[in-house]
Amino acid sequence: MTTVEFHPLVLRPDDDDPDAVVVGRLSIGEFVELPAVYGDAITLMRQGLTVEAAEERIAADHQAEVDLAELVEALTDLGFVRAVDGDPLPDPAERAPRSHFARLSRRHVAWLFGFPAKLVWLAAVGAALVTLLLRPSLLPDYSDFFWSDYVGLTVLVNTVMMSMSISVHELMHLMAARSLGAPGRIGFGTRLHNLVVQTDVTGVWGVPRRARYRVYLAGLAWDAFLMATLVLLVAHAGLPGAAKAVLQALVVTVVMTIPFQLQVYMRTDLYFVLRELLRTRNLFDDGLAYARYLRAGFVAMVRRRPRTVPDPTTGLSRHERLATRIYSVLLVLGATVTLTAFALFGAPIVIVAFARAIEGVAEGLTGGSPLRALDSALLILIEGGIQALFVVTFVRTHPHWFRRRRTLRPE
Questions:
Q1: Whole-prediction pTM
Q2: At what angle do helices 269-277 and 283-302 cross, to 10 degrees?
Q3: Which secondary-structure segment (H or E) carries 355?
Q4: What is the pLDDT of residues 271-302, one digit of tens each?
Q5: Of 94, 114, 146, which one is at a domain's C-terminal end?
Q6: Quick check: is 105 in a domain?
Q7: What confidence tens digit (pLDDT) does each residue in 361-381 have?
Q8: What does the alpha-carbon distance between residue 111 and residue 196 come to, in Å, rounded to a whole number?
Q9: Which domain holds residue 357?
Q10: Any signal peptide, and if so, which residues (predicted)?
């Protein structure tokens, strides 16, 4: 007789298939979809039944024979099993990264997503929209970004403000996940040529789809609330001119982040919303795999060789296969346009800005304006730091690109 002890697990009905369940362990971010009968078997074993007794109960209740020993082995590989016959097993949670703000519980943050908070959000956004309609001069303009004659100082302050706003944006994702009982981690990542701050909220797979939208949209909801609050302060708080200028610059920096979220081919917040709306499980990776399949087919056609790469979408459901194939085209086109625009505009702007900043520092050191030299040095420090952080993050998140390959040579 085999007894099985499980770690704390989430077990819920699947969002789309009534004959399936989702089983997962929040602490390691592992989730798997299983037939509902296996979910019943896990429940029975968690209640203390042995593997053999659970098999007999399943056979009696469902008129089906199941191999629970094989199921237990698979769940052990996933890190779901604590002990078998009282013998503890290695726990992958000991090596898993710890959740950030672990002491932040559901009761601390649930109020942020309750009905009163939603009313406050609607009131602020509505009042800001009315204010902008009545005073269109308050609409954000690119010139609002430059609130000082010193570009380096402007970039420094705006970067600090943007960093704080982005930090709260990501913290809202984490708090939304925590309000649903899911852990989260905040860190750096890359999207094509962009350095991004991202929140790992894999644990939200433990809650139904409708609840997951809260997590994905929490950051954008914060952005809208922040911009609305800033507009109202500038319009009605009677602030000094300098304070108004800085707040309007912050509005511009937040507005500049919104178009990025629309680039769903880079796994932005709205990508996850799109994935849920299309009822797909892994839209980006499946779309990327299909794009590689199309590339391999094109290369084979050019070389007049048979296609050897199988279609990775054949195992998907009909609607998921169609969504994945359309998304793969969007992914390729979007990435191509983005990288081309960066090569034609973004990279030259950065290079010229660095060159002019270096020139400004050199002039300051040879008798020119010391303020201009300091301003240029600030620009080099800020942009150089951002680019260096991008390189470090890219290398860390893409180790296989930089791993030295060994070549075996006959002796």
A1: 0.87
A2: 90
A3: helix 347-365
A4: 999 999 999 989 999 999 999 999 888 888 88
A5: 94
A6: yes
A7: 888 888 777 888 888 888 888
A8: 28
A9: 278-411
A10: none
